[in-house]
Amino acid sequence: MKTIHFYFDPISPFSWLAFQKLPEALMGLSHRVLYKPVFLGPLLRARGSLGPAEIPAKRDWTYRQVSWLGHHLGVPLAMPAVHPFNPLPLLRLALATAIPEGELGSEPGAVNRYVAEQVLRHVWEGGQDAADPVRLAALREVLAEHMNLRERSLADPDSDAIKARLRANGDEALAAGAFGVPSFVVDGRLFWGLDSLPMLRDCLAGGEWFNGPDWDAAAQRPSILEKTAS
Q1: What is the tally of helices (H) and strands (E) in the chain?
Q2: Other CB atoms closer than 10 Å to residue 218's CB: what's the count?
Q3: Nearest one of 12, 217, 205, 198 to 123, comparing CA atoms
Q4: pTM, entire model
Q5: I need a labelling partner for 13 at 20 to 30 A (CA). Which of 43, 51, 167, 229 fits?
Q6: Rounded distance, CA 139 to CA 134, Å?
Q7: CA 152 to the chain's CA centroid
Q8: How many C-alpha atoms does 93 have within 13 Å on its Cβ side?
Q9: Does the N-terminal peptide bond of residue 56 adopt cis geometry, omega within 30 degrees of 0?
Q10: How far apart are CA 12 and CA 223, in angstroms?
């Protein structure tokens, strides 16, 4: 059984769409998914990139495209009242549900699918303000109740330990080659974006292409940009 690390930030509509379509995309394959919240902003800055919302024309296109994609794919999606917004409270709240390191069955910085869904749904259904304190408090109650049912308690989302774990998730994603979200990592290979799901499935299914030279060859292609930079 293959393990997929799914790095996501609830600020990303593509994280929501990929989350919803992932079970269908991988139906019939033996796998497990580890859902790992990451803060997109520092990830982009580490790569010297801007987010779509930071480029006005790209922002407009992205919002149109994801609205159509939700309709086309049958995934409920309504742009939140304000976007972009600060996703840190949501990211830390999600990680407050993670099993502490060292306990049986733990995976550092991973949350279960229910938690990932609640955090993503909070943003992408209903068209409300994702950063509204009243709504965040309600989400916290939902996750606290979920933890109670699992005979655990919700950690303090504002604790130094949770903040450190979020940074560690980001460092882990960077080390795996991530440059955006959603990112999927399996067997040391990184797949980026909603449209990578068919490619991810082919990899998990043992697709012949992955046994050839093309994966590694892509990183060896000379570029005029390298000469310009020097």
Answers
A1: 10, 4
A2: 8
A3: 12
A4: 0.95
A5: 167
A6: 9
A7: 24
A8: 28
A9: no
A10: 30
53: number of CA atoms within 13 Å, CB side? 14
Dihedral pair phi/psi, residue 2, rounded to 5°:
-85, 150
Amino acid letter, residue 96 = A
CA atoms within 13 Å, Cβ hemisphere of 41: 10
Handedness of CA 138, 144, 146, 149 (dihedral sign): negative
**Owner of token pair 């099993």:** 99
| b/e code 158-194 from CB counts within 10 Å (16+ = b) | eeeebeebbebbbebbbeeebebbbbbbbeeebbbbb
Partners of 32 in the beta sheet? 3
Instruction: Please tell me the distance from the alpha carbon of residue 189 to that of residue 159, in angstroms, as a whole number.
Output: 33
Do β-strands 31-37 and 2-8 pair in parallel, antiparallel, or remain unpaired?
parallel
**Residue 6: DSSP 8-state:** E
Report which DSSP code applies to 12.
-
Write out pLDDT tens, residues 182-223.
999 999 999 999 999 999 999 999 999 999 999 999 999 898
Q: Strand pairing partners for 184?
A: 6, 191
Q: Which residue, 11, 4, 18, is CA-closest to 182?
A: 18
**pLDDT tens for each residue of 48-107:** 999 999 999 999 999 999 999 999 999 999 999 999 999 999 999 999 999 776 555 568
Closest alpha carbon to 31 in 194, 211, 206: 206
CA distances from 113 to 35, 36, 132, 147 (A): 7, 10, 23, 13
Measure CA 142 to chain center.
21
Q: What per-residue confidence (pLDDT) applies to 227?
A: 59
